[in-house]
Write a structure and sequence with these properties.
alpha+beta, 14 strands, flat
Length: about 575
């Protein structure tokens, strides 16, 4: 059996080395770390003896453009809407709709695993290197529930493209991959504990030794570890067998997790390309085309700064013996004694060559063209060309400017749909015991219900990604539209409060509750008056306002004293019998 295990480990490590060899041939191990350095503002080469006094300004256009584009892609609110594939018209309606249950559970899962943060990290990586990779796994260390205890929960993480190796790099469909390998650097002790927990003997686990294979990690921060003899490379491989996803783990030539079925039908990995590359699952990021522009901008600005320095502090030229160099400083207005013979000109300043005025214009032109070509111009980033534009005009400009990145948004929404299918697979397979989950109803209020996804293993669902506005400008449009409708009398004040964004009206729920309570009594009074006969209405109109209120209150709530309910003292209302009302 050990020979089989070693053979499996050798096969997996060979596939891993083949993946690294492919990365080297494509130049990924050199390009991706360079992209990361430029985005992190490390954009100048190391200083030499000749260039140590050269200014090194950094105007990080790459980070500005990619940050705004990522924010634009994430500007809409996303929801997963599950519904049944087939509906039996003759079957009576059930109170619990499986599609609605899965949809609301997706919202709760989205909040629990912080999916927005995962999406932001994935899109940052995609904008820089070209590829975003989401990975979801089952974590048995999570435990919870008192009345309904459970063990295990689905978790998510973002993988860097430099640590993921696909069996077929030319196949863009993840689910058609023959295998997927994930590499990671883990502490040796934790790897040994994991191996022993999965049936590996203690003697075999001790053979897991630390290694120094950090150069293949690519990035500068990954190459330097806190302790060079404390980590080992762990390889995780997914593949499909008999329609189910299998996985195993290998470290230091030893299989620490034997081939095991996950029970899932889909690879728990979703991939998105920032910009498509022909015949490759790897995408193209913005940094690849922005580096030359970034270098030109930094160099032009550096030359301008150097010119100003040389003009403001020109170099002093003197003949031997004319002055004492040790007494010359950079103090303004300093006097220098010239000991050279008359007429020899022993001391003078060098006048630097003037810099072209086109340099500053060229910097602005390069930045403007770069932003325009990448879809990150002023309108897209929210900078209005005129201060007189309102929120509606700015939003329309943003929509027009966002057309170049609409294709990126579509690929992002497709990736979210793939993630929804992975979640559905996890729910049907791993959530096989009833557990209590906290969901939200249509009003946004929390409610608890029981969830057992394995009950729906044979139920087919359709999945739709619902995209709704959630930016500041869209909220401004909602508020503006509701105010106009209220002013025109098309809606009531109650409707105005109900549909206003929650963060724009403090204590909205409390205010609506008080209005509903007040409306209950007043509405009953108005109904009584409307149902009076003409004679009763004429007699009712002859009463004073205080008498009218007391009469109506005696009908609505005869058990309560009317004066106290109105906040009046008993003497404020004439003591007389209320008029009879034919109700």
């Amino acid at each position: 059996m050990q020979q089989t295990v070693d053979k499996l480990a050798g096969e997996l490590e060979k596939q891993y080395k083949d993946g690294l060899s492919y990365f080297r041939r494509m130049g990924f191990l050199d390009k991706w770390p360079e992209y990361e350095r430029f985005k992190a503002s490390d954009q100048w080469p190391a200083a030499t003896q000749r260039t140590k006094h050269l200014p090194r300004p950094v105007f990080n256009v790459i980070k500005m453009i990619e940050t705004h584009k990522v924010a634009n892609v994430m500007s809409e609110q996303i929801k997963m809407i599950f519904s049944l594939e087939e509906v039996d018209d003759q079957q009576p309606e059930q109170e619990d709709d499986p599609g609605e249950l899965f949809s609301r559970n997706s919202e709760a899962t989205w909040e629990r695993i912080k999916q927005d943060e995962l999406n932001e990290e994935a899109l940052d990586t995609a904008a820089n290197t070209g590829t975003a990779i989401w990975h979801y796994y089952w974590d048995n260390s999570i435990k919870g529930g008192n009345k309904y205890p459970y063990i295990g929960e689905m978790e998510g993480e973002i993988l860097d493209p430099i640590n993921v190796f696909f069996g077929n790099e030319q196949q863009r469909n993840v689910q058609k991959q023959p295998f997927i390998i994930i590499s990671s650097r883990e502490p040796v002790e934790s790897v040994r504990d994991y191996a022993r927990a999965n049936g590996i003997s203690t003697a075999m686990a001790k053979q897991i030794k630390p290694d120094k294979e950090t150069q293949d990690q690519g990035y500068d921060m990954a190459k330097v570890e806190l302790n060079d003899s404390n980590k080992v490379t762990v390889l995780t491989r997914y593949w499909k067998g008999n329609g189910k996803v299998m996985f195993c783990k290998v470290a230091a030539g030893i299989t620490i997790k034997k081939p095991t079925s996950t029970g899932l039908s889909l690879y728990p990995i979703a991939v998105m390309q920032w910009d498509r590359r022909k015949k490759s699952i790897r995408g193209i990021g913005d940094t690849e085309g922005l580096i030359p522009n970034q270098k030109a901008i930094n160099t032009l600005v550096a030359m301008q700064i150097l010119s100003v320095q040389l003009t403001g502090w020109p170099k002093l030229v003197y003949k031997s013996g004319a002055i004492n160099p040790s007494k010359v400083t950079n103090a303004p207005g300093e006097m220098i004694e010239d000991n050279s013979p008359p007429g020899n000109g022993g001391v003078s300043y060098l006048n630097p060559g003037p810099i072209s005025a086109n340099a500053a214009n060229l910097v602005e032109s390069i930045m403007a063209f770069t932003r325009q070509m990448t879809g990150a111009d002023e309108a897209a980033t929210g900078s209005a060309p005129s201060a007189d534009l309102n929120a509606t005009a700015i939003m329309l400009l943003q929509k027009a400017a966002a057309i170049p990145i609409e294709s990126i948004k579509r690929r992002f929404y497709r990736a979210i749909e793939d993630i929804g299918r992975i979640w559905e697979d996890f729910w049907k397979v791993k959530y096989n015991l009833s557990r209590q989950v906290l969901l939200k109803d249509e009003e946004g209020d929390d409610y608890a219900t029981m969830f057992n996804g394995s009950q729906y293993q044979d139920v087919g669902f359709t999945l739709k990604i619902d995209v709704g506005p959630s930016s500041t400008y869209s909220e401004s449009l909602v508020v503006s539209g509701l105010e106009n409708a209220l002013g025109a009398g098309h809606i009531t004040y109650e409707q105005y409060l109900k549909y206003m964004p929650k963060n724009t009206v403090p204590y909205r729920d409390r205010l609506m509750k008080e209005m509903d309570e007040k409306k209950g009594i007043i509405g009953m009074m108005e109904q009584i008056v409307e149902q009076m006969s003409p004679e009763e209405r004429a007699q009712f109109d002859t009463l004073t306002p205080e008498q009218q209120v007391m009469t109506l209150l005696n009908v609505v709530a005869p058990q309560q004293p009317a004066p106290e309910m109105m906040g009046q003292s008993p003497q404020a209302v004439p003591m007389q019998q209320p008029m009879p009302i034919g109700m």
